[in-house]
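Customer escalation, tier 2.

The customer says the design service returned an amino acid string that "doesn't look like it belongs to this structure." They asked us to rerun it and document both sides in this ticket. The original structure tokens are below, unchanged.
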């Protein structure tokens, strides 16, 4: 499933309905990071307000490569809770047409394209352009726990 997320104040969140964690309660730094806890993820972009492409997918095994220019940000355990995901920004949010198996443990792998240079392009070539698009793309891959290459506490990646 692919959609557009309107990133505001460099932030957006992804929450599984039923999670007890609020995405805005997760750590707010550093830029370019992803913070995850109990079915909730906070994404911090390197650029301020802009539109980004967000692709969500479930895979039976982790992908080694998802497309040209995409860089793996990290991998985290993710609980699906009730299964329905909500996409949030500081001023809006709502359910999206993407569901995980309810009450299932996943490894969430986050890939990003364009993120490292997003701030420079935001203030450079896109200065004064509205709306700002094409700065970065995100691909979020969910792999059910127990699948090949699922994250365990010993293999968990950290934010970059």
């Amino acid at each position: 499933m692919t959609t557009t997320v309107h990133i505001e104040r460099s932030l957006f969140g992804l929450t599984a309905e039923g999670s007890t964690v609020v995405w805005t309660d997760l750590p707010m730094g550093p830029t370019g990071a992803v913070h995850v806890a109990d079915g909730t993820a906070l994404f911090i972009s390197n650029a301020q307000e802009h539109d980004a492409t967000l692709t969500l997918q479930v895979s039976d095994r982790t992908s080694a490569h998802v497309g040209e220019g995409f860089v793996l940000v990290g991998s985290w355990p993710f609980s699906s809770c009730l299964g329905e995901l909500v996409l949030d920004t500081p001023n809006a949010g709502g359910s999206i047409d993407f569901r995980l198996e309810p009450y299932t443990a996943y490894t969430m792998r986050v890939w990003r394209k364009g993120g490292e240079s997003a701030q420079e392009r935001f203030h450079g070539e896109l200065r004064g352009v509205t709306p700002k698009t094409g700065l970065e793309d995100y691909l979020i891959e969910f792999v059910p726990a127990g699948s090949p290459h699922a994250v365990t506490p010993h293999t968990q990646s950290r934010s970059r």
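Tier 2 assessment: The sequence is consistent with the input. The radius of gyration is 15 Å. The beta strands are 2-7, 11-16, 34-37, 40-44, 50-58, 70-79, 84-89, 92-99, 105-113, 133-144. Sent an explanation to the customer and offered a walkthrough call.
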